[in-house]
Amino acid sequence: MCEADFLSTVRSALEKSCPDVDAFVYDSIDSTSSEAKRYAREGGKPAVFIAREQTAGRGRLGRSFLSSEGGLYFSYLFYPDIKPCDAVMITVYAAVCLSEIIEQITSLKVSIKWVNDLMVDGKKLAGILTEGAFSENADRFKYAVVGIGLNVGRVHFPSELADIATDIESESGLLPDISDIAVRLTKRLGEFKNKSPLDYMDGYRMRSVVVGKRVRVERGGESYFATALAIGDDASLTVLTDDGIEKKLSSGEVSIRL
Ligand code: BTN
Questions:
Q1: Atom 3 in ligand 1: which residue has the minimum CA distance?
Q2: H or E element: which one contains 143?
Q3: Is the omega angle on the peptide bond into residue 209 within 30 degrees of 0, that is, cis?
Q4: Kind of pairing, strands 214-219 and 254-257?
Q5: From atom 16 of ligand 1, which residue's Cα is the shortest distance away?
Q6: Contact at 8 Å (CB) between 58 and 64?
Q7: Looking at residue 43, what is its pLDDT?
Q8: 30 in the Ramachandran plot: left (φ > 0), alpha (ψ -120 to 50) or beta?
């Protein structure tokens, strides 16, 4: 789809189907999440930011996120009424929503690698990054931005990603309509305020690829091996280290390798 068609198709689909959300669509931008943060106004209307490519896409833990044409780069700005320490629940809810949407429009079976990676056949299909700003005493969100990068059309990954990343088209032979995915995601994320973890944690756990596996836990500069035991209702991951110590990990600074 050419640039002008992409912009107008995605924008008009969102305006028609999600009238309560401001929609901003770009051909190229540094990062949709950076744009969402620049736009955020405390207590304002939810807004969605979508781009065909990003020049400075961000991932978790300060990593960059490859954002070439063919993907969906999507950020949803909203004002959740949850404690900032529960921010991970936004990521978890978004992971379940996106998995369900992909499964509804393709025949793919989506798995989730704790905490924010969507996988198909052992390769990464999408990543999610939730960011926010907090009130002065840090007891509530001023705003939150959930950023989603989904590889939709065939991507020519650089050699270091070729074996570990994939896209919907390569896996399913289908090229789904990006505006359809964007509308479905916007609607589902707008329902977060009415959901409790009981509504989505089972969907998260049933797709988990880490539980029962031996994993390498990386925290700061350190790493150790452990067996993943369970994911709690607060999205924490309990592991048993090789030294026999049970640890409850929160997503913060931890990254898991299978
Ligand atoms: C990760 O896999 O570590 C998370 C990746 C999140 C990428 C998305 S793409 C849209 C939004 N804009 C960004 O710069 N990052 C998020």
A1: 59
A2: strand 141-151
A3: no
A4: antiparallel
A5: 147
A6: yes
A7: 75
A8: alpha
Do the bridges between strand 22-29 and strand 47-54 make them parallel or antiparallel, or are there none, so unpaired?
parallel
Whose tokens are 């050699």? That residue is 159
**Ligand 1 interacting residues, C-beta cut-off 6 A:** 31-33, 54, 57-60, 63, 65, 73-75, 116, 127-129, 147-149
Residue 71: both structure tokens together: 């993907």
Q: Which of 58, 114, 130, 186 is the pocket-test mutation for ligand 1 (most atoms within 8 Å of CB)?
A: 58
Specify whether the CB–CB gap between 182 and 98 falls below 8 A.
no
Q: What is the 205 CA–ligand 1 centroid distance (Å)? A: 22
As beta bridge partners, residue 231 has 237
For residue range 61-118, what is the model confidence (pLDDT) as tens digits?
Answer: 889 999 999 899 999 999 999 999 999 999 999 999 999 999 999 999 999 999 999 9
Please give the structure tokens belonging to residue 99.
């998995």
What is the distance in A from the centroid of ligand 1 to the CA of 57?
6
Global pTM reads 0.96
Cβ–Cβ < 8 Å for 128, 147 = yes
Q: How many helices (H) and strands (E) in the chain?
A: 7, 12
Q: What are phi and psi of 34, to 5 degrees?
A: -65, -40
Cβ atoms of 196 and 188 closer than 8 Å: no
